[in-house]
Amino acid sequence: MSSCRHLHLVLLPRPAKKLRCRHCHLTITAGELDGGYCPECFDALGRKNFDFEEVDAPAEDQKTRYRCEDCGVIIDVD
To answer: Which of 34, 40, 41, 60 lies 20 to 30 Å (CA to CA) from residue 11?
Structure first.
């Protein structure tokens, strides 16, 4: 066990929502969509597919998480 008292905590951001291409099933964040079309479909087939569905985040991604700046431990809060 660590002797750290975890006095310097930093709130970790939650992961961004993910989108899944309905054609090739690539999972990507909205911020990574350059131009709004699926880059995998465009690279493989030359098609600009804009058809995505939102993917539910796993329950573990819904937790609030902190990192101790002193020892680096990650603390999950329900």
So the answer is: 34
